[in-house]
Design brief:
The chain is mostly helical. 47% of the residues lie in helices and 8% in strands. The chain has a two-stranded antiparallel sheet. Strands 3-4 form a two-stranded antiparallel sheet.
Length: 160
């Protein structure tokens, strides 16, 4: 239970930092984007699971997560059926990627499907990826109040 609580706090910290960076660096914040699943593959997987007698609400990431949770045993380990469900649903997913916040014109395009969050970045594990370090540098620049005469600094200015 304590691990779950820590994970939730980490997710909220990452979301909060993403929002702060997006606000301060509207064109250059490092954002982790996770598009929704491949619709045709998801539809086929849901049909196959239905033929196996398993109902899956594929209307949202929450519905998919509930389908996975329904087939877990002690210690949150998937049951044999859960492994099948996880395998079929994993084939539908698109990989999450990093983007600069100025890359897309529509805000909703930064949505992180897997976490159901409008904005997300990796902030809590800076040793894992270079983009995590960028998020740390951007937050540090923001907290130190680095602005120039034109407003918020660019990524290049922050990196200097």
């Amino acid at each position: 239970e304590s691990n779950k609580l820590i994970e939730e706090f980490m997710l909220k910290a990452n979301e909060s930092v993403a929002r702060k960076l997006y606000k301060h660096f509207p064109r250059n914040a490092i954002i982790r984007r996770h598009p929704g699943p491949k619709e045709d593959v998801l539809e086929n997987s849901v049909k196959l699971l239905k033929r196996m007698g398993l109902e899956v609400d594929a209307s949202s990431s929450r519905g998919l997560q509930e389908a996975l949770n329904a087939h877990t045993g002690p210690g949150h380990k998937p049951t044999p059926t859960g492994l099948v469900v996880a395998s079929l649903l994993a084939k539908c997913m698109v990989l999450a990627t990093y983007h600069s916040s100025g890359e897309f014109e529509e805000f909703h395009e930064y949505f992180h499907y897997g976490l159901s969050m409008e904005l997300y970045t990796h902030f809590t594990s800076p040793i894992r990826r270079y983009p995590d370090l960028i998020a740390h540098r951007q937050l540090q620049a923001l907290l130190e109040g680095c602005e120039n005469e034109d407003g918020p600094m660019t990524c290049d200015e922050v990196s200097e």
